[in-house]
Amino acid sequence: IKQKSLKxxxxxxxxxxxxxxxxxxxxxxxxxxxxxxxxxxxTPEERPKVGSFANSIRDELNQAISxxxxxxxxxxxxxxxxxxxxxxxxxxxxxxxxxxxxLMQVIDKIEKLFLGMxxxxxxxxxxxxxxxxxEMLNLPKDHPARDMQDTFYITQQILMRTQTSxxxxxxxxxxxxxxxxxxxxxxxxxxxxxxxxxxxxHQFHQVEGLVIDKHxxxxxxxxTLELVAKTLFGKxxxxxxxxxxxxxxxxxxxxxxxxxxxGGEGCAVCKQxxxxxxxxxxxxxxxxxxxxxxxxxxxxxxxxxxxxxxxAMLKYGVDDIREFYLNDIRFLxxxxxxx
Length: 339
Ligand code: PHE
Hints:
Elements: H1 2-11, H2 15-26, H3 31-37, H4 46-83, H5 102-116, E1 120-121, E2 127-129, H6 130-133, E3 158-160, H7 165-174, E4 182-191, E5 203-213, H8 218-233, E6 239-246, E7 249-258, E8 260-261, E9 268-269, E10 275-284, H9 286-291, E11 300-306, H10 308-316, H11 323-326, H12 329-332
Parallel strand pairs: 1-4
Antiparallel strand pairs: 2-3, 4-5, 5-11, 6-7, 7-10, 8-9, 10-11
């Protein structure tokens, strides 16, 4: 038994086989176990002899088994290490890195600019109350100017915000002027009931700004917007303001930026006039201040609203606003931040 078993143990290639051999010899019903058990039938003189002989064989076999196990383990580790060798000369697998959406890149840039000037960035709900989206902004029910912003109503009082101005209304209402002026921008998505085409999307973005303090003038507004135009479109840019109408500002202005060549080759966003309209702005209407509980005789301010979608279209020569929302990876990849 001993010789045969030792041979088998040496031949065994995996721990399971070894274990089977062990059970066969030393298990409950194993051959050696049987011999040891059979000792009670022996005479007292035979017992110690047979006993020590059987025990020595058992120990020898046990030793052989653990040795073989050790050997196999060493073997296995060696094989594993061999397989795991890394060939450092192989070319790397490219990591598919993402990047912020081009609109987010434009908004980030605007946010950085305004943070640098001490503005606060404020978020608000996209599902908004009529009260904040219109009423508080000097647009009572039945006001004809509501037609300027075709609205998705959810109920009579709840709607998808058509502008980010309601965030200003909410902030004005709670701002504590004893702690300083109000300077904020509110970037975000807005919704209008438009039929989508190259220049219209039922969902787009706005960044609106609001400053309220004592002694704010239109010159402050113009200086701020000029900085926006120069930061986003280039130092050589100029702006001009044309009289316009918004219900929440008086006076109101549409703001043009001087024409320019955009990112891609041969892409020139120039109109005959040499100017392109980029945003709306004005001095906050006294009614808006009053409705927010602000003393319009002491405080005043300016507000503006710009569309990052339009900015990005002009800057990068994108001729269809829908490109921003189709999420075609081939389109989006063009705006790698390194470029
Ligand atoms: N909220 C306005 C709009 O969407 C833009 C705007 C904001 C105009 C602030 C003037 C002042 O039309």
